[in-house]
Every structure is written in structure tokens, then in C-alpha cells.
Design a protein that fits this description.
Layout: E1 10-15, H1 21-29, E2 35-40, H2 49-67
Parallel strand pairs: 1-2
């Protein structure tokens, strides 16, 4: 039953590198359920909580907009 409902899932992959390497690896190696998106940023500084919060809110809004009927 869980696999039948997997199309309703949404996945945000957060990583700190330039080319979204983990996202691309996961997409290549696995059939990810539902909608998969990536948030990535290059650089040596850690991702800040406010930056992650903003990315998650934007991602959630995008996901909600995609779910709403036209």
C-alpha cells in the first residue's frame, strides 16, 4: 500500500556542493518516489538555519501549487 501512495510523496535533498552531486547520484541509482527536488549551495560555510527554512518553505509552496488542480 505504501508504494501505491508513493506518488504523493515529495522529497527535498539538501546538500552543500556545487553540482547537486548527491541528488544526481540518487536519481541515477534509485527510482525515487514522488517528486524529488534539490537544494544545493557551494562553498565552505555551513548552511544556515534561516537559509534552510527559506528553501523548505519555497519547496513546500511549489509542491502545494503543483498539487492544486488548475
Amino acid at each position: 500500500a505504501a508504494l501505491r501512495e508513493s506518488h504523493k510523496l515529495s522529497l527535498l535533498i539538501v546538500e552543500q556542493n556545487h553540482g547537486a552531486q548527491l541528488y544526481r547520484y540518487l536519481r541515477a541509482m534509485h527510482d525515487l518516489p514522488g517528486r524529488a527536488a534539490s537544494f544545493h549551495r557551494p562553498g565552505p560555510l555551513p548552511l544556515r538555519p534561516a537559509e534552510l527554512t527559506a528553501a523548505i518553505v519555497d519547496w513546500a509552496r511549489t509542491y502545494q501549487a503543483a498539487k492544486e488542480p488548475a
